[in-house]
Design brief:
Elements: E1 2-4, E2 23-25, H1 27-33, H2 36-46, H3 63-73, H4 98-105, H5 114-125, E3 129-132, E4 138-140, E5 152-155, E6 159-163, H6 168-183, H7 190-193, E7 239-246, E8 249-255, E9 265-270, E10 277-283
Antiparallel strand pairs: 1-2, 3-6, 4-5, 7-8, 7-10, 9-10
Helix pairs in contact: 1-6, 2-4
Amino acid sequence: HFFDAPMYFKGSSKPKKSWKDFGDIDDLRALQVSSNVYMWHIALRLGGNYYSPNMSINLKEDTYDVMRRYFNMFGLGVKTGIDLPNESAGLVESQRTSGKLLDFAIGQADTYTTMQLAQYVSTIATNGKRFAPTLLKEVYLPSNDDISGKQLIKGFTPKLLNVVELEERYFNQVKKGFVAALQESGGTGYSVFYQAKDSYNPAGKTGTAQEYARDEEGKYIRDANGDLIIDGNRYRYGRAELYVDIPGEASERSVKKRMLVTKAWMYIEQDSVDGRLTKCKLLGKNLKHAPSS
């Protein structure tokens, strides 16, 4: 158990926190609600630290190596072995600072491909067996016969790359957390998957892809402190409403603050009479540092 509340470290006035304060939390709850704080406590322990407010982080030299070695066992940060050319192993963060370690512990810093994400969750599903994904199952001689009458030239069996040597009870615990994330109220994926549990038994882990925000010229956007702004950060976007009075013309009638953003959710409402687009909303979350166009 850890206590999920904002964490403060020496050298930074900004707290590190989860998207919500969850209080006392165990491993299952941490997976269900996607607790950053829980994973930061784990990373600190691996690095030989116990959290206290405003502490300095002094990591063991091999902390990054230990964490990456375990990530690699599940297919993160290494090639999956798929039967396609030019596969990427993702991007590895070169900095090995304490701050980057905390980022790494919640799935940031290093960048993974969608195939790597699929392989890691499949490795959990198979209790630690990491198989190379394949697009080709069997090869037959061409003929007009159905599959039962075709001559098999070559068949493929799953290629086992490695086995994660952990007791089955640990995999079962992770699976319980994955089920809670999608099937139990309060889970980060519950709103999307709660109805699916009547048809099948969904389990998974939600996550967010983050990139530093750029302006129109492709340059990184920084805040007042000179820090790079994460694209999608709640402190970046504001709210505006764009109305279409005449087809092809748009006018800003109601803009609470200046904001035309490069990325935001778009909602379109159509006129109930003729179906003409009458209103388009760009919804963000706050206005700080919104780009000029």
